[in-house]
Specification:
- The chain has three domains: about 200 residues, MFS general substrate transporter like domains (Growth Hormone, Chain: A), CATH 1.20.1250.20; about 90 residues, no CATH class; about 220 residues, Up-down Bundle (Growth Hormone, Chain: A), CATH 1.20.1250.
- It is about 65% helix and about 0% strand.
- The chain is mainly α.
- Helix 2 crosses helix 13 and helix 11 runs antiparallel to helix 12.
- The strands form two sheets. Strands 1-4 form a two-stranded antiparallel ribbon. Strands 2-3 form a two-stranded antiparallel ribbon.
- The C terminus is likely disordered.
C-alpha cells in the first residue's frame, strides 16, 4: 500500500500548494521573534543615576554642562563610565547596601563652590559619606522600557531576570501541553487557538499597570507561543514531500531570522516599550485568517482514520499544483499501522549505554544552545555600542549560518559541522571578552561570529535529535531533550544580568566553557549521514559497530534500487 510520501511524489512534493502554505507559515515563524528575544528592547537598561535633591539648581547656578554636573555630584562617575553595575556595588566601607550610591551632602547649602563643591562642603570624593538612593532615579534615554517604568535596577534588578525567565518557563510547560493538543485535536486547531491566545496576551501586556500582571501575562504568552511556532513547523514539514522536508524545516527557522531584522527596525522606530509591545502582536490578529488559507495536515487526518478528508486535501494539492491524481490512488484507503509496537518509556532513554550517552549529550547541547543564543543577545543589549546596530549585525549572520548547514550536512555530515559550530561559538565568546572596550568594532565582529556558530548548532540539534532515536520513542526523546532548551532559557537571564555586575564580560567566559564542552561532546555522538533512521534500541546501540556499515549498505541498496526502478 502506498504511503502519503508516495502520493506526494505524484501530485507534487513542493508545488504551488506547498509553497503557499510554506510562505504563510513563515510569517508566523517571523512573528515569534518579539516573544523570544523581546527582552533586549522591552527591558533595555539605560545609563542611570540617583536623584540628588538640589543638584539641578546648583548646576543651573554654576552653569555646568551635563558632564561637569555628573563628575561633581555622582560618586565615581569618571572612573566607571557607562558601566551600570558599579552604580550598585558596596561602598568602600563595606556596608551591605545595594542601592545606587549618592553623596550624603546638602547641595542646597549656601556657599557651595562651583569649582570644588565637595571641598567647600568639608570633604572630597574619598571622605564624603555615601548613602543609598531614596529620591528616585534619572535615566539617560529618549525612550522607555520596563526598567525605566518600574525602576528595575540595583536591588530590584532581579525582576528583569524574572520577566524573561517567566516566558521560558511558559515555553517549558506549554510545549508538552500544546504538543498533546496538536496530536489530539489537529495541527490547524492548535495553530489557530494558540495564535488567538498569543495575540490576546500580547495586547494585554501593553496595558496592564503592574509588574506582577506583566510577569503573569508573559508566562501565559510563553505557554502558547512556542507551541504555536512548533505546530507551524510540524504542519509545514508534513505537507511537503520527503525530498524537501529538511530544507523547508531549515528555511522555516530562517524566517525567524528575518523576524529579527523586522523587529529591530520596529523597535528603532518605536522606542517606547508599551507602544512597541502593542505593535508586535497585531500581525497575530491577521493570522486568524489562516482558518481559510491553511489545510489540516493530511498525515494527522490519516492517523485519526479520517481518510476521506485526507484524500480531499490531497486532491486539492494535486489541483493547485496542476497535477493529475493517478486513478489507482483516488480511492485508496489508509490503515493505521499496527499498534502492537513497543510502548515508549522514559527509562528507555537511559537504559542502554549508547541511548544513555545520546540522551545526556543531546540534553546538554539543547541547554547550551539556548543559553548561548539567548545569552549573546541579552549581553549585546548591555554593550556600550549602538544597541540597534549591534542587534542588526548579529541577526544578519544567521543567514550564512543556515546556508552553511544546507551545503554541508549532506556532504560533510552532521557531527563535524555541529562540533565545529559549538567550538567556534565558545572561542568567539572568549575573544569577545578579551578584546578591550575601546576596540568596539572588533568585539562586535567576534560576537557576531559566536552568534553564527551557536545559530548553526541550535538548528542542527533540532534535526539530529530525531535521527538518533528509534521510531517508537523518537517523539518522546525529542520532547525530553529539547525541554533542557527551556531550562536554559529560564537560567540565562540570571547568568547574564547578575554576572555583569561582577564583570561586564564574565557571562562570555561562562559561555566559552559551555560551548567548548558542547563541541567536544558532539564528537562522541555517531554520524547519521547516509544512514537509515533506527527502528529499535538495538539499531542505536549498533551505530558504532559493524551493523552500522551494514545499515549503510542497506540504505545504498535501497537507493540504487529506486534509481533503477525509475
Amino acid at each position: 500500500m502506498p504511503s502519503l510520501d508516495d502520493i506526494l511524489e505524484n501530485v507534487g512534493e513542493f508545488g504551488r500548494f506547498q509553497k503557499q502554505t510554506f510562505f504563510i507559515l513563515c510569517l508566523l515563524s517571523a512573528a515569534f521573534t518579539p516573544v523570544y528575544v523581546g527582552v533586549v528592547f522591552f527591558g533595555f537598561i539605560p545609563e542611570h543615576r540617583c536623584v540628588s535633591p538640589g543638584v539641578a539648581e546648583l548646576s543651573q547656578r554654576c552653569g555646568w554642562s551635563l558632564e561637569e554636573q555628573l563628575n561633581h555630584t555622582v560618586p565615581e562617575w569618571g572612573s566607571h563610565g557607562a558601566g551600570f553595575g558599579s552604580r550598585c556595588r558596596r561602598d568602600a566601607g563595606g556596608l551591605n547596601a545595594t542601592g545606587v550610591r549618592r553623596y550624603e551632602v546638602d547641595w542646597n547649602a549656601t556657599g557651595v563652590s562651583c569649582t570644588d563643591p565637595l571641598g567647600s562642603l568639608g570633604g572630597n570624593w574619598s571622605t564624603v559619606p555615601l548613602g543609598s538612593c531614596q529620591d528616585g532615579w534619572v535615566y539617560d534615554s529618549p525612550g522607555t522600557s520596563l526598567v525605566t517604568e518600574f525602576n528595575l535596577v540595583c536591588e530590584d534588578s532581579w525582576k528583569l531576570d524574572l520577566f524573561q525567565s517567566s516566558v521560558n518557563a511558559g515555553f517549558l510547560i506549554g510545549s508538552i501541553n500544546i504538543g498533546y493538543i496538536a496530536d489530539r485535536f489537529g495541527r490547524k486547531f492548535c495553530l489557530l487557538s494558540t495564535i488567538l491566545a498569543n495575540a490576546v496576551c500580547g495586547i494585554l501586556l501593553a496595558f496592564v499597570p503592574t509588574y506582577l500582571w506583566i510577569v503573569i501575562l508573559r508566562f501565559l504568552q510563553g505557554l502558547v507561543s512556542k507551541g504555536c511556532w512548533t505546530a507551524g513547523y510540524i504542519l509545514v514539514t508534513e505537507v511537503v514531500g520527503p525530498t524537501y522536508r529538511r530544507m523547508v524545516g531549515i528555511l522555516y527557522q530562517m524566517a525567524f531570522s528575518v523576524g529579527l531584522l523586522v523587529f529591530d527596525a520596529v523597535a528603532y522606530a518605536i522606542p517606547q516599550w508599551r507602544w512597541l509591545q502593542l505593535t508586535v502582536p497585531l500581525p497575530s490578529c491577521f493570522f486568524l485568517l489562516y482558518y481559510w488559507c491553511l489545510p489540516e495536515s493530511p498525515r494527522w487526518l490519516m492517523s485519526q482514520g479520517k481518510n476521506d478528508k485526507a484524500m480531499k486535501i490531497v486532491s486539492d494539492i494535486a489541483k493547485k499544483n496542476r497535477k493529475q491524481m493517478p486513478s489507482h490512488l483516488e480511492d485508496i484507503k489508509f490503515e493505521e499501522e499496527d499498534s502492537g509496537k513497543q510502548s515508549p518509556s522514559f527509562l528507555d532513554l537511559v537504559r542502554t549505554p549508547q541511548m544513555r550517552k545520546n540522551t545526556f549529550i543531546l540534553m546538554y547541547n539543547w541547554f547550551t544552545s539556548s543559553v548561548l543564543y539567548q545569552g549573546l543577545i541579552m549581553h549585546m543589549g548591555l554593550a556600550a555600542g549602538n544597541m540597534y546596530l549591534d542587534f542588526l549585525y548579529s541577526a544578519l549572520v544567521e543567514f550564512p549560518a543556515a546556508f552553511i548547514i544546507i551545503t554541508t550536512i549532506d556532504r560533510v555530515g552532521r557531527r563535524y559541522p555541529w562540533a565545529a559550530a559549538n567550538l567556534v561559538a565558545g572561542a568567539a565568546c572568549l575573544v569577545t571578552a578579551l578584546v578591550p572596550e575601546d576596540i568596539h568594532w572588533l568585539k562586535v565582529i567576534a560576537a557576531c561570529i559566536g552568534r553564527m556558530g551557536i545559530t548553526m548548532a541550535f538548528e542542527m540539534v533540532c534535526f539530529v535529535n530525531t535521527e538518533l532515536y528509534p521510531t517508537y520513542i523518537r517523539n518522546l526523546g525529542v520532547v525530553v531533550c529539547s525541554s533542557l532548551c527551556d531550562v536554559g532559557g529560564v537560567i540565562v537571564p540570571f547568568i547574564v544580568y547578575r554576572l555583569v555586575e561582577v564583570w561586564q564580560d564574565l557571562p562570555l567566559v561562562v559561555f566559552t566553557v559551555l560551548g567548548l564542552i558542547a563541541g567536544g561532546l558532539v564528537l562522541l555522538l555517531p554520524e547519521t549521514k547516509g544512514r537509515v533512521l533506527p527502528e529499535t534500541v538495538e539499531d542505536v546501540e549498533n551505530f558504532h559497530g559493524r551493523s552500522a556499515a551494514k545499515a549503510k549498505k542497506i540504505y545504498l541498496h535501497v537507493q540504487t534500487s529506486e534509481v533503477a526502478h525509475d
